[in-house]
């Protein structure tokens, strides 16, 4: 049993010291106390050389589970360190859903050998799972569902379960189907145990049960579990035929992955990026968004260059100019973050987006007036010019209004275009607030001070 009071940092320190001193027994002691997901987290937290050393000490019986929990890029490096026989052995114990998650990352020869080693039922289940879209309910569902007919007695169901000798993990209820396999309800295990064995399943089953379409996006599935407080749910095709089930354990992973994706995409990074990847591939990935940002920065610089005469004559403009862009950027980022979260949770649609836009315009106007007055007073005290104070106040209001509008409109437009708002929204927003801020401030100064 792992020591729950020991932090990841503590375990990392122990592993680093043990690997550095070549005390492999100490490494084995740490690994023996950890669950596969905890081992995966340790592997992701180590530089490549130390990671491979640790991976070689991971017990073979948990290799498959560990591979399942690490990010794609880390998984690729670990698979490169394994021969074909080791990979086949590591993944042979995984169920169909878990195997499908990593199957496409396997070397082609290994994948072919694995398919040949499966029986017909395993192979058909895996191929069916792989036929669904990657982020769909079909990829999440488990096919180990126990289904019973509605017209049989509880005693018949009990005999069936005794014959099976076990039930799949996280089974809180049995799926109920008709003679053709179409889903009609669920029978909670508690009712099976507590009622007269002669009663029919149809008399005790729940018919008002949320079912999930096999094509539903995993993000929508996670929202359904959250809002309906589900522990498990049946998965059906478009005709209502029972295909499998999804349990809360799978949804926890989806929620975590979605959170990581949103966080990383805000910085223009892939959620699967390896923190300890080599310098060159990491630099190449980040260079793309740095290049995009540079283009937008030159656009802002070009706008500033249009007002070169004003900047030459009035030094105060150059001093105060960053304030206008900065205040707009912060205000826009707040709105953008809320909008992206709302889109991810399905809270924003065409029916309420106009109301939300009006609300953000109102917030921007109030905050714009408040802080423009503060900045105007400080500018007058600093430079002794009421005109400069009025101009920067007006520019601040204009830019904060633009930021509020852009914070809502940009993610909506990107979503409609099929682009993840979290990936590019912040870059576009920064461009808008910089360009509008500089143009408003310097343009007003040119009109009224020169």
From TrEMBL:
It is a multi-pass membrane protein. The keyword Transmembrane applies. It is found in: Cell membrane; Membrane. Residues 141-204, 205-263 form the CBS domain. It comes from the Bacteria. Keywords: CBS domain, Cell membrane, Magnesium, Membrane, Metal-binding, Transmembrane, Transmembrane helix, Transport. The chain crosses the membrane at residues 287-305, 317-340, 361-384, 390-414, 426-449. Acts as a magnesium transporter. Belongs to the SLC41A transporter family. Homodimer. This is Magnesium transporter MgtE. The lineage of its organism: Bacteria, Pseudomonadati, Pseudomonadota, Gammaproteobacteria, Oceanospirillales. The gene is mgtE.
